[in-house]
Amino acid sequence: MRLEELVNKNYQLLNENDLYIWNYIIHHRKECERLSIDDLASKCNVSRSTILRFSKRLGLKGYAELKVFLRIDNQMADKSAIADNMYNYYVETLKQYREYNYRGIVESIYNAKNVYVYGTGVIQSTTASHLKRAFSLAGKLFLDIDFSSDFSAYTNMLESGDVFIAISYSGENRRLLDYINQLKLKGVIIVAMTANKESTLSHEADYSLQTQTYSIMTNKGRVEELSGNYYVLVDFLVAYYIEYAKRRGKQ
Fold it and tell me: 179, 129, 176: which is closest to 156 by C-alpha?
């Protein structure tokens, strides 16, 4: 379903602010693909919670899902531009990843006796595997967490100063969040990688990295999320870790 259809379907639920936000979006479709919720709120002179309520009145989970629908709508309007849009998106993503502050994360990983990683979904699990493989080349081994087994066994294994990296799309997996709260009580350092920087996971973590996501409409009419941005973020993290380890080795 396209955004216009969602607006028409839920039109009776929309107030004056909602209609103003929608009017801005339809006149700045390409720009809004890249705007954060705070940026859009500023453009529309409303609060970020107003943007979030607008998204939910359309039946969406939040602002991140609204942007996915908008991006797909824009692709359908100009299907020949899919590759160009993806290129521009990756260029902008690289710029954002380069500006992230990795220092505290890589320092914690370097000093940790043990580092654990877990991904909640298919793409997130493959990202966790890529992270393990990439860091092994830098001489740092990561341990798996098997969430299908008893959590208490892992809770007893982790110690203060260990690092737990949680990779989650929404950052709202209740089982994962409950486990993280147990680990924080033990002094375990939590690193979040999530597509939603305003998620509970992001707020609970000691360090948080936002994974930029990109979705496309396939020729079969299916929406698919590309995984390249996850791997690129891991590669940036590894690169900064290698630089930090080299500096520590010279001391």
Answer: 179
Long-range Cβ contact pairs of 46-50 (< 8 A, separation 24 or more)? 46/17, 46/20, 46/21, 50/17, 50/21
- How far is 49 from 60, CA to CA, in rounded Å? 14
Buried b / exposed e over 47-78, threshold 16 CB at 10 Å, is ebebbbbbbbbbebebbbbbbbbbbbbbbeee
Dihedral over Cα of 230, 236, 237, 242: its sign: positive
Contact 181, 146 (CB under 8 A): no
Closest CA to 21 of 60, 61, 59, 48: 48
pLDDT single digits (tens) 228-239: 889 999 999 999
Rounded to whole angstroms, the Cα distance separating 203 from 222 reads 32
Q: Give the span between the Cα atoms of 84 and 56, in whole angstroms.
A: 30
Q: Among positive and negative, which fits the CA dihedral 168, 2, 50, 93?
A: positive
| Residues 117-149 pLDDT 10s | 999 888 899 999 999 999 999 999 998 777 666
Q: Which residue has the tokens 């409409």?
A: 217
* pLDDT category of residue 150 using cuts at 50, 70 and 90: low
Contact 110, 245 (CB under 8 A): yes
Length of the chain, in residues: 251
- According to DSSP, the residues that pair with 165 across neighbouring strands are 117, 191
Q: Which domains does the chain have, with CATH numbers?
A: 3-77 (1.10.10.10), 98-249 (3.40.50.10490)
Closest CA to 57 of 6, 16, 110: 6
